């Protein structure tokens, strides 16, 4: 189903608006498919030509080391012939592979609840590699959905797409997902801060008076959320509301898993110079019980703040999307669709922030 400038993907009962590359880019891409200019591998993806092949590095100033080359172009949307598309999320394309799912993290980026017109080259690889790092780090705390991310071990039907899939995909156990996002907050920020200002509590959990924006909380709190019907905004709910939706025993289990993961991961992040202010997990059930699914502790699902710049009493700069947000504010975008595209230097600096997050958290550089 298509509408002008947008493509639509289903996720369970939700329909998510996805921004595609601009019409001219797509028209050129389809023209090349039609005329056979694209190789079979190229045919499997839609691309984003936002960045010119020659970069103007003089427009880039960043405290992190610049890389020699950007992998071009960003992968905006996958289309694998003969595979069954299960769903498209804001960032991931999901395919049904036998009884399993193939999760492919594209380079789409969203801000203010909209997928933007430009992708960040390699972002999907950073998210995938970071999630793999955390799945391994957390495996003693909680089982997870990963079967393998080694493309060579993927089923034969996926081998033709090995080059596209390498580094940015995972074969996972298909889970029955809980209709609740398991959010944990160690600091007061975002919707938690708004809620606190209005009610003195977050998701019904009372907090001491006099806390400032970005203050550390006396202890981490579990503040579940659910999706609104438009599928774009998360809505905070109370624990009782969660119990009404998924049951008391499961809610308690999800809360204790979420807090245990946060405790372990935030202590580790702190050792690496990063504050894990809050994060969101998605859990599901398989025949083996409750597992951690989706992505884990990436900059897209979490607020990471550099410790050395932490100043409570106001908003902290977002680690990864600050350049994107600043740019969108500077052009006074009304935060309604269609979402704008990004200029080259914003793309480049954002890519560097994602890579920096990976490097800081894992201690290794990721080559894209
Ligand atoms: N093991 C799994 N089994 C079934 N569904 C899964 C599994 N892991 C992840 N998912 C689902 O895959 C989708 C991933 O999509 P994606 O992260 O792109 O977007 P989103 O979750 O819709 O949006 P956002 O993350 O911005 O809220 C989600 O709907 C998630 O619930
Ligand atoms: Mg998601």
Automatic annotation (TrEMBL):
Gene Ontology, cellular component aspect: cytoplasm
GO BP term (any one): 'de novo' IMP biosynthetic process
Highest taxon in the source lineage: Bacteria
Keyword ATP-binding: yes
Bias (Polar residues) ranges: 55-64
InterPro entries: SAICAR_synt/ADE2_N (IPR028923), SAICAR_synth (IPR001636), SAICAR_synthetase_CS (IPR018236)
Protein name: Phosphoribosylaminoimidazole-succinocarboxamide synthase
Species for this entry: Silvibacterium dinghuense
């Amino acid at each position: 189903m298509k509408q002008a400038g947008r493509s639509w993907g289903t996720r369970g009962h939700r329909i998510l608006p996805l921004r595609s590359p601009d019409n001219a880019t797509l028209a050129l891409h389809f023209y090349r498919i039609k005329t056979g200019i694209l190789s079979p591998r190229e045919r499997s993806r839609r691309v984003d030509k936002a960045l010119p092949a020659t970069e103007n590095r003089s427009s880039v100033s960043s405290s992190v080391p610049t890389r020699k080359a950007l992998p071009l172009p960003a992968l905006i949307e996958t289309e694998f012939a003969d595979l069954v598309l299960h769903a498209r999320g804001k960032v991931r394309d999901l395919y049904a592979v036998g009884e399993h799912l193939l999760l492919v993290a594209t380079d789409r980026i969203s801000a203010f609840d909209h997928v933007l017109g430009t992708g960040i080259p390699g972002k999907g690889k950073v998210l995938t590699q970071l999630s793999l790092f955390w799945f391994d780090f957390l495996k003693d705390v909680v089982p997870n959905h990963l079967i393998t991310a080694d493309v060579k071990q993927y089923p034969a039907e996926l081998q033709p797409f090995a080059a596209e899939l390498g580094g940015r995909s995972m074969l996972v156990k298909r889970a029955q997902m809980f209709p609740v996002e398991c959010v944990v907050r160690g600091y007061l920020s975002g919707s938690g801060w708004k809620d606190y200002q209005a009610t003195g509590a977050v998701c019904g959990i009372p907090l001491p008076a006099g806390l400032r924006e970005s203050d550390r909380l006396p202890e981490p709190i579990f503040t579940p959320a659910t999706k609104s019907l438009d599928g774009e905004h998360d809505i905070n709910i109370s624990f009782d509301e969660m119990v009404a939706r998924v049951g008391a025993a499961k809610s308690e289990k999800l809360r204790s898993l979420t807090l245990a993961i946060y405790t372990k991961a935030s202590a580790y992040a702190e050792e690496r110079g990063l504050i894990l202010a809050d994060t969101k997990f998605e859990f599901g059930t398989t025949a083996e019980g409750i597992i951690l699914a989706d992505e884990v502790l990436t900059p897209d699902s979490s607020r990471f703040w550099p410790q050395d710049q932490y100043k409570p009493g106001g908003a902290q700069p977002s680690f990864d999307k600050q350049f994107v947000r600043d740019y969108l504010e500077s052009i006074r975008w009304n935060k309604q669709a269609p979402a704008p595209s990004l200029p080259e230097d914003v793309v480049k600096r954002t890519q560097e922030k994602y890579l920096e997050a990976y490097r800081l958290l894992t201690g290794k550089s990721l080559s894209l």
